[in-house]
Amino acid sequence: MEAERAWSYAMQLKQEANTEPRKRFHLMARLRKAAKHSERLEKLCESPRVDAKTKLEAQAYTAYLTGMVEFELQEWKLAMEAFNKCKTIYEKLASAFTEELAVLYRQRDQNAINDLMQMRLTGGGGGMMAEKLEALITQARTKQAATMSEVEWRGRSVPVKIDKARVFLLGLADNEAAIAQTANEETKEHLYETLLAECRDTIQAVREELKSEAKQRERSSDGDSGKVSNLQFLHSYLTYIKLCTLVKRNESMAHTLQAKLKEPEADEDKRGPAHKT
Predict the structure, then answer these.
(1) What is the pLDDT of residue 99?
(2) 272: alpha, beta or left, given left = phi > 0 and alpha = psi -120 to 50?
(3) In this structure, are residues 119 and 76 in contact, taking their beta carbons and an 8 Å threshold?
(4) N or C, where is the chain less crowded by C-beta within 10 Å?
């Protein structure tokens, strides 16, 4: 309870620290306090009286809070290791217990993945660290993709059997959130281009499957040639996502250009009046 209370207050301070930098000191103090309480809890759970599930939950909780502290200190390597440990534990717990508990563990696993995404957005580490971080996120999405079976659009549920499409659709919300949270226009444009490239690759993968489907239809005579297949519908959905993303990207670029055009001509002001010779 003490750890949860300290963490909750720290998250409140984190929001306020955006406008009141002095509160960052209190934020770090509360986060460290939460991590210390969780470490004590983990020590208590080492008792032989405590079952294995509770021990693992305590370890995951400590890893998560430790990751939060290291993240705020911009100790990217330590933060990534802690979040990855937390993610791994929750993945194991999700696969070992009832579906009701598995939903809870998968949600906590997603929280750790979101923090890894935030690290990538912040630019944590650069170089090899950035590559490791990207690999972790891709690995997490690939594992999640195995549990994704269908997508719903315009009132129709369509099975998603292509792995590339599953991974892309699972990461879509995270990518869109990263774009929305980015204030830097150059970074935002890069994120848009990355998302569009992933979308184009996914559409191409679906097109390849559509070619195989068309050949199978030619060989069969089931009379369903006029019906929109699941693959065609999935292709339409992905094309819709691509077009929407293009429109948003163009709007963002237009707003940036408009803001630049409204800026005062600082160079002209600095030059001052021209001197005649």
Answers:
(1) 54
(2) left
(3) yes
(4) C
Whole-model pTM: value is 0.51
- For all residues of the chain together, what is the average pLDDT? 75
**What is residue 151's three-state secondary structure?**
strand
Exposed / middle / buried, residue 242 (Cβ in 10 Å: 0-12, 13-18, 19+): middle
Burial tier of 23 (Cβ tally within 10 Å: 0-12, 13-18, 19+): middle
CA distance 33 to 230: 52
pLDDT, position 242:
95
Q: Tell whether the model's pLDDT for residue 50 goes beyond 80.
A: yes
H-helix segments, 45-184: 52-72, 76-96, 99-122, 127-145, 163-181
Closest to 140 (Cα-Cα) out of 170, 165, 96: 170
| 49 phi and psi angles, rounded to 5 deg | -75, -20
Domains of the chain: 1-130 (1.10.3450.40), 148-220+228-260 (1.20.58)
CA–centroid distance for 260 within its chain? 30
Higher pLDDT, 11 or 183: 183
